[in-house]
């Protein structure tokens, strides 16, 4: 295989390794090595089964292939010339790199909220979103567990960002890593936020694992990916979210204090 031909597989390999490392590490820690230690962090009392994990992994592999295909379509064709993707770090001020990551997260969250809410409609749910919601009690492996059509919709955020936001490879890597970390946390099945988080302004803005877990358990509401903002503006946040979050945190920290 020639070097140029091998480059075509790079997006798939990199996305696969990132998924296996981040989701796999989370699964190993919370579901295998220290499951008893984090028992009070568990959001749903019931346990997912081995067949659920295998299903989530198999569909995630399909999604990774779709994402890689979309990236290849942009990077290895003339479309790249029309994007805002830049390789010279000096083309923009260095402070623009972290700013571009924040803008990408905001843009992604907005796109995800409205796309996600749309595919919950009666007309689209069974055709597009059903596969993901087979994970009623999600695990880290569910982060990319989508049917084909939803996988395409999820992957479209790549060209949307690249055509709208000037972004350097460093910023793009940072965005994709943060995105998957947060996605895995949202599907973790365990709440791990520190005690101080509840009283901070961050609680009013950021999603938690409980937030997205409620979406999987109840099927509706809590459509946001990173932030609570759109759910609160559009009044689609589960009304029991704060109560559910507080119940998990109370269980976590009261048990910890008793052990001390």
Describe the model.
α2 runs antiparallel to α3 (50-75), α2 packs parallel to α8 and α3 (50-75) packs across α6. This protein has one domain (3-192). It is globular, with a radius of gyration of 19 Å. The relative contact order is 0.14. It has helices spanning 3-7, 10-33, 50-75, 96-118, 125-129, 148-155, 157-164, 169-186, 209-218, 229-233, 241-259. The protein is built from eleven helices and no strands.
What is the average per-residue confidence, as pLDDT, rounded to a whole number? 93
Q: What is the subunit organization of this protein?
A: single chain
Major sheet: none
Helical proportion? 55-70%
Question: How would you summarize the topology of this molecule?
Answer:
Layout: H1 3-7, H2 10-33, H3 50-75, H4 96-118, H5 125-129, H6 148-155, H7 157-164, H8 169-186, H9 209-218, H10 229-233, H11 241-259
Helix pairs in contact: 2-3, 2-8, 3-6, 4-8
Keywords:
single chain; mainly alpha; 58% helix; 0% strand
């Amino acid at each position: 295989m020639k070097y140029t031909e091998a480059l075509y597989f790079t997006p798939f390999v990199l996305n696969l390794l990132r998924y296996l490392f981040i989701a796999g590490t989370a699964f190993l820690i919370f579901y295998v090595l220290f499951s008893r230690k984090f028992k009070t962090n568990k959001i749903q009392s019931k346990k997912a089964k081995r067949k659920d994990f295998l299903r989530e992994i198999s569909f995630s592999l399909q999604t990774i292939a779709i994402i890689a295909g979309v990236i290849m379509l942009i990077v290895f064709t003339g479309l790249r010339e029309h994007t805002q993707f830049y390789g010279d770090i000096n083309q923009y001020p260095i402070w623009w790199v972290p700013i571009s990551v924040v803008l990408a997260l905001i843009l992604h969250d907005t796109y995800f909220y409205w796309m996600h809410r749309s595919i919950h409609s009666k007309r689209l749910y069974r055709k597009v979103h059903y596969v993901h919601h087979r994970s009623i009690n999600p695990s880290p492996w569910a982060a990319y567990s989508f049917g084909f059509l939803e996988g395409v919709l999820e992957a479209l955020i790549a060209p949307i960002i690249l055509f709208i936001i000037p972004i350097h490879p460093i910023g793009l890597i940072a965005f994709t890593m943060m995105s998957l970390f947060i996605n895995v946390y949202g599907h973790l099945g365990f709440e791990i936020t520190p005690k101080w988080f509840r009283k901070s302004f961050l609680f009013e803005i950021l999603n938690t694992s409980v937030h997205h877990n409620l979406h999987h358990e109840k099927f509706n509401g809590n459509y946001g990916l990173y932030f609570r903002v759109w759910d609160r503006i559009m009044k689609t946040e589960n009304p029991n979210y704060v109560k559910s979050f507080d119940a998990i945190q109370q269980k976590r920290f009261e048990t910890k204090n008793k052990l001390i």
